[in-house]
Amino acid sequence: MAARASPGASTASATSQTSVRHSGLVKKFLLVFIVGFVAYTYQAIQPPPPKICGSPGGPPVTAPRIKLRDGRHLAYKEHGVPREKARHKVVFVHGFDSCRHDAAFATLLSPDKVEELGLYMVSIDRPGYGESDADPKRTPKSLALDIEELADQLDLGSKFYVLGYSMGGQAIWACLKYIPHRLAGATLVAPVINYWWKNLPSNMSMEAFNQQPPRDQWAVRVAHHAPWLTHWWNTQKWFPGSSVVSRNLGLLSQSDKEIIFKIGAARREYEHLVTQQGTHESLFRDMIVGFGKWEFDPTQLENPFPSNEGSVHLWQGDEDALVPISLQRYIAQKLPWLRYHEVPGGGHMFSFAKGMVEEIVTTLLASVEKD
Q1: Which residue, of 26, 119, 146, 179, is most buried by count of CB atoms within 10 Å of its CB?
Q2: 101 close to 75: Cβ distance less than 8 angstroms
Q3: pLDDT tens digit string along 212-232?
Q4: Distance CA 240, CA 58 (A)
Q5: What is the pLDDT of residues 61-75, one digit of tens each?
Q6: Dihedrals φ, ψ of 186, to 5°?
Q7: Which residues, 6+ apart, have CB-to-CB distance to 321 below 8 Å?
Q8: 65-370: which CATH number, 3.90.1150.10, 3.40.50.880, 3.20.20.10, 3.40.50.1820?
């Protein structure tokens, strides 16, 4: 006689099948959730494409521009005496969150001084800023080559001067590395330092890094270690991103705050132009390049003027809260041919103080003036 399955066995089997089906549904749900979350996250961290100047729906082109080797356009603004009459020609490179209009080293000089020096200055919009096309492949080297090409197309001669402020210093270091044969002289004013330059003493670099607020430490870490996350990190609302990007004045010295209040009104006329193509290819690309992995270390640069036919100057305020003076002093010690000028009581914006622009510019040109 065949044995019959007990009711309990049938129930257990049904329960087991139900459990298997339930488990399968849970796995499918988790898979769909994970795929959806990954897709959402990927979309969230992708920066929007830049709004190209002159394109349909993009900002208008109002500045003179040159067309570069790769098809990009570089916008510029001319100051001082006419180019063909100038004795000295200077390319000025602006800092973070700025543009070609922020050329205080030209606009704060008196007309008489400009005439006396025979000074012509051209300020540029760095790639992604103002009306210069973005460059997703931007590096310090590409910035130097952009400047050289600008000089050639504007007929600045076989040699010209370069002057960079703050984050614009990355371009000046690159010019000293890649096109020193084209330079008549160079000046860096409060240049931003990359904490990961390989020859900076690790203990000194770490000490300076830790002096930053935690939010800025993390913003710089992300720019260096996970550049693809930089845009999301500084635009999400869960926790604070870079205080510099958010224009938090709490970091600045009292003298810097006073200067900002004085020049703020003058900037309002063009301030909206600075990041009109988008913040990623301007502000965030600046962070990625400035704090990224460099192909060279400025502390290992060779003297570009071994016969004293020109000079290189670095100016730094001793109360600069954005750029650590300890590392700036170290760099000056490692480069004995660099002429280091430390400004007592000067913050990051000390160059806007009365008389400083004239001193910085005339010092750059002094060796030639004496010849």
Answers
A1: 146
A2: no
A3: 999 999 999 999 999 999 999
A4: 30
A5: 999 999 999 999 999
A6: -150, 145
A7: 251, 252, 253, 256, 347, 348
A8: 3.40.50.1820
